[in-house]
Amino acid sequence: MPHGDLTKVGVEEIQQVVRGVWPGSPDAVRRRARGARFLLEHLTSFPGSTWQQRWQASGLNQRGRPVTAVKREQKERDEICVGTACLFSLRVIRPSLQALRSTRFLRYGERFLTAQRDPLLEEFWKRVQDTAVHPLHHGAALFDTTAALTTQGITLADLTPEAFLHYVWETRDHGLTFEGRDDTGRGQFPGQLAWQVLHDMGHFPSGTPATLRAAVLSGRRTIQELVDRYDIRHRGVRQLLLDYLARREPEMDYSTLDQLSRSLVGLFWAKIEALAPGQPDLRIDAELYQRWRAALGTHQDGRKQREEVEPILRVVRSFYTDLHSWAVEEPEKWAPWVAPCPIPDGALRGIIVRQRRRKERMDDRVRQRQPLLPVLVAHLEDCYSHLWALLQAASPLAGGETVTVNGRTYQRVWTAADDRRARRGGQANTRVRDLGTGEDINVTTAEDTAFWEFAAVEVLRHAGIRIEELLELTHLSIRQYQRPNGEVIALLVIAPSKTDRERVIPMSAELFAVIAAIIRRHTQHGRAIPLIQRYDNHERRMSDPMPFLFQRHTGAIPRVISPATVLVMLRRRCAELAKQHPGFRTACFTPHDFRRLLATDLVNNGLPIHIGAALLGHLNLQTTRGYVAVFNEDVVRHYQGFLDRRRQARSADEYKPITDSEWSEFEEHFDRRKVELGGCTRPYGSTCQHEHACLRCPILTINPKMLPRLDEIEDDLLAHRARAEHEAWLGEVEGIDLTLTFLRQKRQETKRLARIAPVELGMPVLAAPR
Description:
Radius of gyration: 33 Å
Strand content: 5-15%
Mean pLDDT: 80
Strand order of the largest sheet: 1-2-3-4
Helix content: 40-55%
Structural class: alpha+beta
């Protein structure tokens, strides 16, 4: 110990140490020494031979007993708070974590650092300060580490991953806070930055997860663990269930396997054993089946009725059917368990009708949301555009200065935290006050949130991908295919999701515009997209570090946006729109709604929903030869391995080799899509369904350079309409009006795209700057 063992020495000697350890003004030194004396004198009234024993006997080591309660005067309370922090830092007293968090000790980490004089801890603090995050997270990282050392009575050299995880879980389970702030909310774990720095500096053993999130999140359970969580008493049936799940495992992902075990083991056989403890085999009589069926309709809490029981019945019925089938192949293993299925045919009768009703509900959901989609998109775009303009206008202002954006006046606000960060050379958050409403706005955070709301909806509605596929997009998902004539086709690789096959989507202008905007946001100021890990909730594992597109800083470290976050974003924006648009009061959007809407739009326009199956799984991912040079080769290898693992779950006949004639036909397809005004985005292998009436076609992409040509066409149509109206050609007038409507819509959309992504849409260059 730097100052010797102070647990048994007298008050005067401890006061002398307190005065000498921390430099400062004479008044500050007196306050610290006096505060330490206040606490020690209070502890002398309790039994014990050491200060630690007296501390525990005093009751102050329990949660909810702040040391400030010892004194009544505010000045004395402040002093005893500072003095107690000094005693903890000198290890005179070892508090419990609940006791340490019951009192707000400002700058405790730095006080502990000064007292201990630990070179390893000082190196850790230097590395923390070099991390480019808000200074608040620097202080939280130091506090988390020193709090763990204080409460466990160890030095940093002895801090193991297990010891730090103990601190993390205890802090989270008890809902404790950092210096009075709630740092355990919104699903966040404390100590994330501290863990990352300790890992990067090589303090943790090799093989330790690189992030705290990877260390604390539950991983994949083995089949034995999936079965044994239900404590099956019949050893023979338990082994049968293990063998059955092992046989089914190769054909499904982990999430499906987990659900199968829940239905078959937990909801079927565990309930059977609870209802009939002596049940010897799988022969379930009608009376036991009826009791099980009644128990199945109610959750374990006994209050909520289970709405869907048909999936469970189908799982059990498939189980019995599989045993019958497998008994023919391996009678010695499966035949002893063959029994009649207890589920009668009538139990699943009417499933087709119920599926039809479900389909009708989904169709009605799409019909309700289709007219609301343009309103939602316009709202998201307006919110982002306004906040971006406000951020650009307000960032250079000094405190108290005003600015007007889109007719609304704002006043720049500076907080003490912003001042501290600016003095340390950091970028302060831009905060303003809306002088019309009096609302204070953190424009930096609001603009970031608005951008990701806008980007998520744009990619979902133009690509038609699932939410997990959206969040798995990386910079490596973007590929460029350069044709022999120099034309570049932008492609988006969608990794297989659940039982879906890998897809390669030729990006439309709208989809490319938002993808380019995301990449520019990540790579501004010459930065590279950070390589981070993503936890897959379906597969229950962390990915390799990859440059995920949908990542953002929500705390000390960057994280991939979660599906729940996207859902919350949509609910919040729909709630805002419900105040002006009654349709949103009963129709909130979910991420999957955009997939249904896109499929409906394609089908209604006579087009297939996806590109042909032969093309979807067969495109060579190394089409653009120079692409690998942009990224670290190790990252590319991880991503290719990720795709290979996904492919292994699919049937081999989905990956047939492509022939030269098929490839030539694929290349010629892009030539046939070129038209005067731009390009047709119809999928490969499909012909024009609109008799080349391009202006009326919803999938025509207008080249921004052809906007003047649109004006000429509009003038010609207006002249033609005037003559048709004069000649009373009413059918011709109606057709021209329809064409004019589509023309104006396309012109407006093209101008919007040019404003959002001012890049050459026809020749995309997506390589990140080196």
